[in-house]
């Protein structure tokens, strides 16, 4: 069983459902995927439900993508560090699952924005947490940033309730694809500067599908 834990980007109700993509891949036939994402959750929220929604599943694999709502709510990075460390420690203590921490995608597509400056501190915490706990790390932010640097100047970050509501309306009521919603907002990887377009979701799917095979190969190559 694979449990994907986190918040709205994992839940996939607003934006592309990358966990659903993994579930549909032929190479993962026979695996049970549990999408434990919950819209609006912070790291504190995930810590509060880790036993019920992750440990209770007795998973073989766990991926964790959490922190975007901490960033938006202004949660100090040290508080985020403590919550994330406690989440990982709890899963390690109570299961034998292999764990991967995913770095957070950029907040919008302007890599030089103020919010992406703050996001770098959160991603540093995620990478340090993976090292400290000797769990795997999936470089989602790095992949997105490499792609966006090739696209020239990008729109200024402008996430809000209205943008998210209009994105949901276009998808669920008008039948537009998430990529079409993104294009209407001048974006490529996000539908509303925060949630994933089909293209952005496919990038996350690809990275997670490569794990843990890539990590196991890297471990075998160590002296």
Quick tags:
Rossmann fold; alpha/beta; 223 residues; 12 helices; globular
DSSP strand tally = 5
Across the major sheet, the strand order is: 2-1-3-4-5
Beta-strand proportion: 5-15%
In the CATH hierarchy, what is the class?
Alpha Beta
- Specify Rg, calculated over alpha carbons: 17 Å
* Low confidence ranges: 215-223
CATH topology name, in short, is: Rossmann fold
Alpha-carbon distance between the two ends? 31 Å
The total count of helices amounts to 12
Instruction: Tally the structural domains.
Output: 1
What CATH architecture label applies?
3-Layer(aba) Sandwich
The helical percent reads 40-55%
The major sheet is characterized as:
5 strands, parallel
The overall pLDDT average reads: 91
Structural class: alpha/beta
Q: What is the CATH superfamily label? A: SGNH hydrolase
């Amino acid at each position: 069983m694979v449990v994907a834990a986190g918040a709205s980007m994992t839940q996939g109700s607003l934006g592309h459902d990358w966990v659903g993509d993994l579930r549909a891949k032929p190479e993962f036939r026979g695996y049970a995927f549990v999408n434990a994402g919950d819209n609006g959750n912070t790291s504190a929220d995930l810590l509060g439900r880790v036993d019920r929604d992750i440990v209770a599943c007795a998973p073989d694999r766990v991926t964790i993508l959490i922190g975007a709502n901490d960033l938006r709510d202004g949660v100090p990075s040290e508080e985020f560090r403590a919550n994330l460390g406690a989440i990982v420690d709890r899963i390690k203590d109570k299961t034998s699952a292999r764990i991967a921490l995913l770095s957070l995608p950029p907040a919008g597509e302007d890599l030089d924005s103020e919010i992406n400056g703050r996001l770098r501190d959160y991603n540093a915490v995620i990478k340090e947490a993976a090292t400290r706990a000797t769990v795997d790390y999936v470089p989602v932010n790095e992949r997105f940033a490499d792609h966006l640097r090739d696209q020239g100047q990008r729109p200024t970050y402008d996430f809000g309730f209205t943008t998210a509501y209009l994105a949901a309306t276009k998808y669920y009521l008008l039948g537009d694809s998430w990529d079409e919603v993104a294009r209407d907002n001048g974006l490529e990887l996000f539908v509303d500067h925060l949630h994933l377009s089909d293209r952005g979701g496919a990038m996350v799917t690809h990275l997670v599908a490569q794990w843990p095979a890539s990590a196991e190969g890297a471990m075998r190559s160590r002296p």
